[in-house]
Fold:
Amino acid sequence: MTLLGFETSGKTASVALCREDELIAQTSVLTKLTHSQSILPIAKELVRHAGISLEEIDGIAVSDGPGSYTGLRIGISAAKALAFGLDKPCAGISTLEGLAYNLLGFDGTICPVMLARQDLLYSAMFSCDNGKIKRLCDDEIISIEDLKERLKSINKKIMLAGDYAKAFFENAGMDKLSLAPPHLRLQNAAGICFAAFSNGLSAPENLNARYLQPTKAEKDFLAGNLKVVI
Structure:
């Protein structure tokens, strides 16, 4: 099975082609262009250089949250459009789970941490044993201090990944923590693909973003600052 993967939940635009035991090609770019400007041209060039047509892929995988609201919508829209157009199944994968799959060679607990706002983080925990990832808890929003306390109770080695991993590592003061290497620390599309092989594919109409917190429009509506006119 060959999957085309998209990762647009953060500042990096990433596209990958993967088989279940092989990374065929990947491009990850930290660019000033918006994801809407860059992600499909990157995908077009990637498949061209790999010598694989879009018709030959078996499915599409994309990060579905948490992360940047705009970035997630762009990646999901691109994945759905291709899936419908090519009549292919797709998979929405947790951004945090994709980060865990970046670290398949590590044995211990993997804790992805992404900055949500102020002192709050998006986080989850996964065990990795002999290249097998197992989710230990749901994705959640948690305070920095609460996550520190939770990690203190874990006896295994813990590896941090994500855009807040370095800052958390430098301030946590725990010997059992280690930091994912730079090339595996941030989101990439290969991690999304390898997670999708384990999670399976479904129809594109089932693909939707999972934000974990209300969008700005929802916050404004709940606060009474946004009126709906019918």
